[in-house]
User: What shape does this take?
Amino acid sequence: MIPVTKPFLPPKEEFDELIAGIWQRNWLTNGGPLANKLELDLKRHLGVDHLLFLSNGTIALQFAIRALDLKGEVITTPFSYVATASSLVWEGCQPVFADIDPHTLNIDPATIEALITPNTSGILATHVFGNACDVEAIQDIADRHGLKVIYDGAHAFGVKYKGKSIFSYGDISTCSFHATKLFHTTEGGAVITKDPELLRKMSRFRSFGHTSATSFEGVGINGKNSEFHAAMGLANLGHVPQIIERRKEISELYDKWLKGVAGETPEITSGTTYNYAYYPILFSSEQELLKVIEALNRAKIYPRRYFYPSLSKLDYVEKRPTPIADDIASRVLCLPLYHELSSEEVELVCRLILRKKRY
Ligand SMILES: *Cc1c(COP(=O)(O)O)cnc(C)c1O
Assistant: This one.
């Protein structure tokens, strides 16, 4: 069986060593030493000022929306994972869907401005598949209209834009460390910001609003993560360069056999140092995509339709036409891509796709 992804697991000895320390200290959660070390190591690894390690990437989005006090309408992308839109609705905001750029698959800044009303409070954009958004154009629109900007960077671990971490753009960036992501802590996520006041606010959200054992400031919730999850993150972090290197090799094999022959791949925004988080391919039609999926499934290969359907089709959002996102969502497929995937397996996937294309 070849799934679309498989979680990376570090050598077990490396994890065991960290776990042994947990037994010695008997400190399992609530800002333990491993969680603190992971935050420090992540800040250093990514080159960002402030980062909070949280229980998942969805609560990271919720914290960002709340910390920036977003209300009313938030302009967002219809081409992302459901959490991008659902977290807005969960926080009482109304997602307003812009359309996407058909080449980068990210929100198209040219479609944002026409959607701004007196009720618009912010922009929530996703660096889809790890490809950097047009951060300059988005910031320019936000500045001119007094809007806050959140980036859902769930796919963008390790991505740089113009030499800086992609997480250093916008007011707050979020990341997911879920098991299926390039860097993971089993379950986990983070918020990243340059603003120390936003950091303090989100740090209070994370532990029930506590400022000390007996005092509180504002409404909080539980967004903490555990020492066990931090241990997985610490063990994985050292392997990230090899993980990205192997994903790059696999992506280049797919490119060699498929790109321009079986379909097209998104255009990487210029200035992006890419992380090879996914291998999306665009077929010419949904019919062709379904034929390819069927042929691959018959060989026990399970690619995934990331992202289908377009989020503007959810039954709890206001419908707006997003023709480009709808078209892309109907014919994009993410091919298997994970550290252990062998070159022979990649070749098999490619041969089956090409055979299906021909007949
Ligand atoms: C995975 C993902 C999330 C959610 O992260 P979790 O850690 O699973 O809560 C949010 N947005 C995008 C784009 C994602 O891919």
